[in-house]
Each structure stands twice: as C-alpha cells, then as structure tokens.
Amino acid sequence: MKEILKIIVAAGQEKKAGGLAILDMRQLTTVTDYFVLFSVSSTTQAQAVADHITERLRAAGWAVLRREGERQSRWLLLDCDSAVVHIFVGEERDFYGLERIWGDAPRLSGQ
To answer: What's the predicted TM-score (pTM) here?
Structure first.
C-alpha cells in the first residue's frame, strides 16, 4: 500500500473512523488514484477525522490540495491529489453510494 494511504488510514482509525474502504481508481479515472472512504457518527467526529488526517499528511510532507464540506456537512472530502478521502456521517454514505457508482473499482480494503 502506498505511503499516503497508510498515513490516511492510520489517522482515520486513530480518531475512531469506521467503515474503511479503499477503491483503486487508477484504471477508471484520471482525477485520482484512490478513493478512501470512512464512516463516522457525527459532524464533530467528521471534522476531527479530517483535521487529523490533514495534520498527519502535512507532517509527512504531503499536501491537502482542497477540502470540501463545512461544519454542518455530512460528507467531507479531502483532495490529496493521488488520494481523495471521503468522510461520511451516518447514512450519507449509503445515500450517495460511491461504492455502487464506482463498483468496477478494485477494493484494496474494506467491505
């Protein structure tokens, strides 16, 4: 697994994010190499997970190019160039269905 993925996964798990799934997007899109999906129980936890991932990546020399989702958002996105992190609160993950939409993507980890 790439170093950036290891950092993202460890940081998410340190803040108790669950439902980890890593989708290999390299053969399906030029936007990014990987989608990393987490599920959390509250918007507060989502913010904490996003902040922690951002801090850990910066400390390791990686950049978060863009962050989408505000305090009230139930879906936060971190664009880390070669990986895009999706943090979903509650049932938002099922509602948006990224795993269904990108069903052809090989899974490196997760359900």
So the answer is: 0.93
